[in-house]
C-alpha cells in the first residue's frame, strides 16, 4: 500500500504513515510526542477542491462536538474517546529518505496534554481554504515567520483554523479574552488621559492666577507704595543689651552671696526606701525644731494651731515623738482626684533603738516573703516596716513593700514629675524644714490636703507662684540668722530671666496688697490689732531683703534676716490668716478716727491705757507699737545706743496687760539703767527721742532743765 506523509503541527517534523486507511485517526509524533489528528499532507500544486456534505444536521450534534465559541477552541471529545486505544505506528522521515522505526502509540505512553482538534467544516464560497505550509523539520511553525502578522478576517465570521496547524487565537484551558475585556482596557486608557488633561488645565490656571497676583502686587507697590529711603535717624538701631547683661551678672552674684551665707551645706534630699509615685516631699528635723528654748519653739508658739497639727501627724506617721526624731522624710503619693493619698516615711532617730523595743512599738511580725536575714521586713495589718539600722526605720503601705525594698539600690523616681526630680537635686537635707511639690498637683488635690477654711489662701499662694513654675522647693533654717530659700524650676518655654522678673514684681507689690487687706480688718483685741497692723511692714522688709538669682532651669529667691524675723513673721502670718477668715473684704475701708479728740500735749497722750504683751519683740518694734497706740512719734538714736553697746534688735519680753504707755516705757527703760537709756519728750518738736545720758551730755542737752519724776522719762516744754 502506498505510504502517506504527514506533518506534525507542533514541531513541523515530516512523518511517514504506512497505511492510508489510518488517516483521520489520532497519533503521536515520535519527535516531540505531540498527539494530533492524522491528515494527509497536501501538495502545494494541487488546487482541486472537494465538496463535502453534512452527515447530520446541526440540531443533532452532541454537545461535546459543538465549538466552544467563548474560549475560541474546538475540541472533539468523541473522537478522542474513540481513538484513545488506537495504535498508529509512524516512522520518522530522515533527510536522506530513510525512515526510523517508532514504538506504537499506546494509552500508557500517550501525553496527557492534547492539542486542540479542529473538525473539518465547509468553507464559505468567498473564502477558499488556505493552503498548508510545510516548515523545515527542525523549526516550530510559530517560529518560522516571527514577524508575519496574523491573517485578517472579516468581522462577521470568526477565523478558521487551518488543517494541521494550531489555532493562533487559541488560549489555554481556563483562560478567556472577550470583547468586554478589550473595551474595559480602552475605557481605562481614556479615563487616564481625561484626568491628565484635567490636571494639566488646573496647573496652567493656577500658574496664570499666581503670575497675575504677583504682577498686580508689584504694579500696585510701584505705583502707590514707593517711599523715600529712610534717613539715618529713622534707621533701626542695635539694642544695647548691657543693662540686661548687667542684670544677669547681678543675678549670678546673688546666687554666690546666698550660697556663702547659707547656714548649712548638706547633701540633696534622696528618696531611698520610698515607693514610686511621690508627688509631695516633706523633709524636717523635729528634734531641733521642738528643742526647749530654741527659735523653732518660739515659731511654734506663734503658730499654735499648725504646731499642734504637725505634732499629731508626726506621731501618727512616724510613731515617735518629735523630740525623738532627728530627721524625717515624709513623701505623699497622690492618686486620682477625691481618692485617699498614700504616705511613705523614713525616720532617723536621735538615739539607737533595740529590736525588742521596735517590735513592741509597732506590733508587727516578721515577713517571710520579703527581705531576708540582712534586710528584715515586718508586717502589721496595713503597713510594712523595714529596720535599716539601729536608728533608721522605713514605713509604707503593706502592698508597696516590694517597691520600698527595691528602692534601696535605686531610687524610684521613674513615675515622678521630672521637674520634681530635678529640683530635689538643689535641696539641702541639713535645713530645718523643706517642702518640694508640683504646683499643678497641689491645685488638683487641695481639698484632700488641707482644711476647707484655708483652701482660698492656698489658691492665692498658687496663683502667686504662677503657671510658669513646673516644680517648687522651699526651705528655711532657724538659727542665729533666719535663712529662707525658694527655688522654682521653670518650664522649658518660660525663660529664667522672665520668671525671675515676674517674681521680683510680685514681691514689690505684695506689701501694698497686704496693706489693702489689713485696712479692711477690724480685730477686737488691741494686741492682735497691733501685730496685724505691722504685718505689711514685716512683708515689706522681707521683700527688700529678698535677693533673686537665676541658674540653669530654675529661679532662686533668698532672704537672710535676723533671728527674730522668723517668730515675728510666724505670729503675724497666723493672726493675719485667722482674721482674714472672718473678714468681709467686700466692705469699704473704714475711715480712721480723726485726731481731733486727742490731747494736745504729748505727755497727756502717753497716759493712754492699752494692752502690753511683748514676747521677745525687738526693741524698735516695741517702741513703734507704743508710738502707734499713743500717736506720739518716737525716734531711736541708733548711734547713741551703739556707743553704749546696745542695738535696736534687743529682745523685749513684757507682759503687763492693760497699763498706761508711761508704764510700758518705764518697764523697757528700767532694764538698761546701767547703760543710761532715757526718753526725752520734746513738746516743741512734737516728738520723743530714745538716747543715753552720755549722748545727751555730748550734745549739750541740759537734762536738769527738764521735768522728770523717775530719771528715765524727761519732758521738755
Topology:
Layout: E1 4-7, E2 14-17, E3 26-28, E4 35-37, H1 77-82, E5 90-93, E6 99-100, H2 141-144, H3 179-224, H4 242-260, E7 280-284, H5 286-289, H6 295-302, H7 304-318, E8 325-333, E9 342-349, H8 355-362, E10 365-366, E11 377-379, E12 383-387, E13 392-397, H9 401-406, H10 418-424, E14 433-437, H11 439-444, H12 446-449, H13 455-465, E15 469-477, E16 481-490, H14 496-518, H15 526-545, E17 546-551, E18 554-562, H16 565-580, H17 602-605, E19 609-618, H18 619-630, E20 634-636, H19 638-643, E21 651-660, H20 661-669, E22 677-682, E23 687-692, H21 693-698, E24 713-716
Parallel strand pairs: 20-23, 22-24
Antiparallel strand pairs: 1-2, 2-5, 3-4, 5-6, 7-8, 7-14, 8-9, 9-13, 10-11, 11-12, 12-13, 14-15, 15-16, 16-18, 17-18, 19-21, 22-23
Describe this structure in words.
It contains 21 helices and 24 strands. It is an alpha+beta fold and 717 residues long. The relative contact order is 0.06. The longest helix is centred in the first third of the chain and has 46 residues, at 179-224. Strand 12 and strand 13 (392-397) form a beta hairpin. A 12-stranded antiparallel beta sheet has the order 10-11-12-13-9-8-7-14-15-16-18-17, sandwiched between helices.
- What is the average per-residue confidence, as pLDDT, rounded to a whole number? 78
Share in helix: 25-40%
Calculate the terminal CA-CA distance, rounded to whole Å.
177 Å
> How many E-type strands?
24
Largest sheet: 12 strands, antiparallel
The number of helical segments is 21
- Amount of beta strand: 15-25%
Low-confidence regions: 55-85, 95-135, 137-162, 174-179, 235-240
- Output the structural class: alpha+beta
- What form results from the Cα inertia axes? elongated
For the CA atoms, what is the radius of gyration? 56 Å
Strand order within the widest sheet? 10-11-12-13-9-8-7-14-15-16-18-17
Amino acid at each position: 500500500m502506498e505510504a502517506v506523509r504527514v506533518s506534525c503541527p507542533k514541531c513541523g517534523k515530516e512523518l511517514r504513515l504506512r497505511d492510508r486507511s489510518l488517516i483521520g485517526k489520532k497519533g503521536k509524533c515520535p519527535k516531540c510526542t505531540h498527539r494530533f489528528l492524522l491528515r494527509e499532507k497536501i501538495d502545494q500544486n494541487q488546487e482541486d477542491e472537494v465538496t463535502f456534505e453534512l452527515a447530520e444536521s446541526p440540531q443533532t450534534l452532541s454537545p461535546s462536538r459543538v465549538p466552544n465559541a467563548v474560549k475560541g477552541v474546538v475540541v472533539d471529545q468523541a473522537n478522542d474517546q474513540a481513538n484513545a486505544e488506537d495504535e498508529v505506528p509512524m516512522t520518522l522521515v530522515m533527510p536522506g529518505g530513510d525512515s526510523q522505526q517508532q514504538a506504537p502509540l499506546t494509552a500508557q505512553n500517550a501525553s496527557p496534554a492534547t492539542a486542540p482538534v479542529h473538525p473539518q467544516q465547509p468553507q464559505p464560497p468567498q473564502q477558499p481554504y488556505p493552503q498548508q505550509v510545510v516548515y523545515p523539520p527542525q523549526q516550530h511553525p510559530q517560529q518560522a515567520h516571527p514577524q508575519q502578522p496574523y491573517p485578517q478576517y472579516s468581522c462577521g465570521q470568526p477565523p478558521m483554523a487551518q488543517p494541521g496547524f494550531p489555532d493562533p487565537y487559541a488560549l489555554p484551558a481556563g483562560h478567556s479574552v472577550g470583547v468586554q475585556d478589550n473595551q474595559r482596557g480602552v475605557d481605562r486608557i481614556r479615563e487616564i488621559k481625561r484626568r491628565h488633561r484635567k490636571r494639566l488645565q488646573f496647573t496652567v490656571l493656577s500658574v496664570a492666577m499666581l503670575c497675575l497676583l504677583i504682577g498686580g502686587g508689584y504694579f500696585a507697590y510701584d505705583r502707590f507704595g514707593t517711599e523715600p529711603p529712610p534717613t539715618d535717624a529713622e534707621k533701626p538701631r542695635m539694642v544695647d543689651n548691657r543693662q540686661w547683661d548687667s542684670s544677669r551678672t547681678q543675678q549670678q552674684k546673688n546666687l554666690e552671696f546666698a550660697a556663702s551665707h547659707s547656714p548649712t551645706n548638706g547633701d540633696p534630699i534622696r528618696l531611698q526606701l520610698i515607693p514610686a509615685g511621690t508627688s509631695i516631699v516633706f523633709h524636717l528635723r523635729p528634734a531641733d525644731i521642738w528643742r526647749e528654748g530654741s527659735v523653732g519653739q518660739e515659731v511654734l508658739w506663734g503658730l499654735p494651731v499648725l504646731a499642734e497639727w504637725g505634732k499629731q501627724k508626726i506621731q501618727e506617721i512616724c510613731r515617735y515623738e518629735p523630740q525623738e526624731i532627728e530627721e524625717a522624710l515624709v513623701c505623699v503619693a497622690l492618686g486620682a482626684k477625691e481618692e485617699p493619698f498614700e504616705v511613705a516615711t523614713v525616720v532617723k532617730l536621735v538615739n539607737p533603738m533595740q529590736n525588742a523595743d521596735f517590735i513592741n512599738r509597732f506590733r508587727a511580725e516578721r515577713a517571710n516573703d520579703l527581705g531576708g536575714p540582712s534586710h528584715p521586713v515586718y508586717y502589721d495589718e496595713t503597713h510594712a516596716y523595714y529596720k535599716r539600722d539601729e536608728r533608721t526605720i522605713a514605713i509604707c503601705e503593706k502592698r508597696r513593700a516590694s517597691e520600698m525594698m527595691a528602692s534601696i539600690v535605686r531610687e524610684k523616681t521613674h513615675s515622678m514629675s521630672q521637674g520634681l526630680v530635678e529640683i530635689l537635686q538643689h535641696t539641702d537635707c541639713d535645713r530645718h524644714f523643706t517642702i518640694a511639690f508640683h504646683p499643678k498637683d497641689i491645685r488638683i488635690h487641695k481639698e484632700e490636703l488641707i482644711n476647707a477654711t484655708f483652701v482660698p489662701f492656698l489658691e492665692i499662694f498658687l496663683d502667686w507662684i504662677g503657671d510658669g513654675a513646673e516644680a517648687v522647693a522651699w526651705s528655711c533654717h532657724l538659727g542665729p540668722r533666719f535663712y529662707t530659700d525658694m527655688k522654682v524650676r521653670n518650664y522649658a518655654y518660660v525663660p529664667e530671666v522672665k520668671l525671675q522678673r515676674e517674681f521680683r514684681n510680685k514681691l514689690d507689690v505684695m506689701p501694698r496688697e497686704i496693706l489693702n487687706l489689713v485696712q479692711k480688718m477690724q480685730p477686737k483685741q488691741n494686741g492682735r490689732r497691733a501685730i496685724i497692723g505691722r504685718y505689711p511692714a514685716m512683708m515689706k522688709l522681707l521683700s527688700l531683703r529678698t535677693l533673686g538669682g537665676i541658674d540653669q532651669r530654675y529661679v532662686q529667691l533668698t532672704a537672710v534676716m535676723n533671728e527674730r524675723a522668723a517668730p515675728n513673721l510666724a505670729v503675724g502670718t497666723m493672726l493675719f490668716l485667722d482674721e482674714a477668715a472672718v473678714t468681709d473684704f467686700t466692705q469699704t475701708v473704714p475711715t480712721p478716727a480723726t485726731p481731733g479728740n486727742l490731747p494736745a500735749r504729748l505727755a497727756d497722750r502717753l497716759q493712754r491705757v492699752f494692752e502690753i504683751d511683748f514676747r521677745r519683740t525687738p526693741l524698735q518694734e516695741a517702741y513703734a507699737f507704743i508710738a502707734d497706740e499713743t500717736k506720739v512719734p518716737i525716734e531711736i538714736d541708733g548711734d547713741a545706743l551703739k556707743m553704749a553697746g546696745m542695738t535696736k534688735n534687743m529682745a523685749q519680753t513684757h507682759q503687763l496687760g492693760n497699763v498706761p504707755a508711761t508704764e510700758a516705757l518705764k518697764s523697757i527703760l528700767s532694764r538698761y539703767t546701767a547703760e543710761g537709756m532715757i526718753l526725752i519728750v520734746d513738746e516743741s518738736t512734737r516728738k520723743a527721742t530714745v538716747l543715753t545720758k552720755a549722748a545727751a551730755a555730748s550734745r549739750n542737752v541740759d537734762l536738769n532743765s527738764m521735768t522728770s519724776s523717775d530719771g528715765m522719762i524727761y519732758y521738755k516744754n
